[in-house]
Specification:
This is Peptidoglycan-binding LysM. Pfam families: LysM. It comes from Chthoniobacter flavus Ellin428. The protein is an alpha+beta fold. The protein has three domains: about 50 residues, no CATH class; about 45 residues, Membrane-bound Lytic Murein Transglycosylase D, Chain A, CATH 3.10.350; about 120 residues, L,D-transpeptidase catalytic domain-like. About 35% of the residues lie in helices and about 20% in strands. It is built from seven helices and eleven strands. Strands 3, 4, 5, 6, 7, 8, 9, 10 and 11 form a nine-stranded mixed β-sheet that branches. Strands 1-2 form a two-stranded antiparallel ribbon. A hairpin with a 2-residue loop joins β6 and β7. α2 packs antiparallel against α3 and α3 packs antiparallel against α4. It is globular and about 125 Å long. The N and C termini lie far apart (about 80 Å).
Length: about 290
């Protein structure tokens, strides 16, 4: 009888301890694992989405200038929106559509070609580039004719090259204009080349300031200028006086390669940058 009582008490004591241990230790761990196994809850709807859709609808309606103004307002009011990158990309497309075409815009100035005018002289007078005049007026060649009416926009471009964002951003008079995705970095600026400090912490890269020093166009392995036949079909480099920062779309032209490999963008990006930029335009390379 005593043996049965002892066995009963043992079962009660150890069973109770096991139950307490389960509730105190195992049950919370099981519940935590179940919770972790659940998919994350969907993010709350972005309250800026209706405003973004309004901007898109204006563009689809063919109101180019109104769409540009709407997107500028959106990126200024909602910099933290989940649609901010989409808004910037669409705004950049609109900006270049206006700048590099015959689309009428309030900022475009008209000029009537006079006797003795050449395109480079007219570009200086209008504070723009010869290449931009050609693109904005759909000119197949750089030749101008007396009494020819052309239009162009005064520009003051600068570049911000960001390793963190993998973007080359164009600013016009300090204001966002367009951004381009970087396809390939040279080894010097690749993420694997970033320096580490104590404890493995990645050290921020020192901001570097420079400028555009040259624009080089290539056709069939030969250098050409905007005055040459076939220029509009050429490929382009934008040389910058920051180490290994030449912008290019083709790794080798005319038997030469950009120093250090350069920064590779799409051919369309280089076509636009060649038309927009001038020697001396400011460039910032940042983290």
């Amino acid at each position: 009888m005593k043996a049965l009582i002892i066995i009963f008490l043992t079962v009660v004591i150890f069973g109770g301890a096991a139950l307490v241990g389960y509730k105190v230790f195992l049950q919370p761990q099981i519940a935590l694992k179940k919770e972790q196994a659940q998919p994350p809850p969907p993010p709350p709807p972005d309250p800026t989405l209706p405003e973004f859709n309004k901007c898109v609808a204006i563009r689809k309606g063919g109101k180019v200038i109104e769409a540009r103004d709407a997107f500028y307002g959106f990126i200024e009011r909602y910099p933290e929106s989940t649609k901010i990158e989409d808004a910037k990309n669409l705004l950049g497309e609109i900006n270049t559509d206006i700048l590099l075409s015959t689309i009428a815009a309030p900022e475009k100035e008209s000029y009537t070609v006079q006797k003795g005018d050449v395109i480079s002289r007219v570009a200086n007078r209008m504070k723009t580039t010869p290449e931009l005049i050609m693109r904005a007026n759909n000119l197949p060649r750089s030749m101008l004719y007396i009494n020819q009416k052309i239009s162009a926009t005064q520009v003051d471009f600068s570049l911000v090259i960001s390793r963190k964002r993998d973007k080359v951003t164009v600013l016009n008079k300090g204001k966002f204009f367009k951004q381009y995705a970087v396809l390939e970095w040279p080894p010097l600026y690749a993420k694997t080349a970033r320096k580490e400090g104590p404890g493995g912490k990645v050290l921020p890269m020192e901001k570097k300031m420079g400028k555009v020093t040259d624009k080089i166009s290539w056709l069939n392995g030969q250098r050409v200028t905007f005055n040459d036949k076939g220029y509009l079909s050429s490929t382009h480099w934008i040389q910058i006086n920051i180490k290994e920062c030449t912008l290019h779309s083709v790794a080798e032209e005319g038997g030469q390669k950009p120093t250090g490999g350069g920064i590779r963008l799409t051919p369309d990006a280089l076509d636009e940058l060649d038309a927009m930029l001038s020697k001396g335009d400011a460039v910032t390379l940042e983290q």
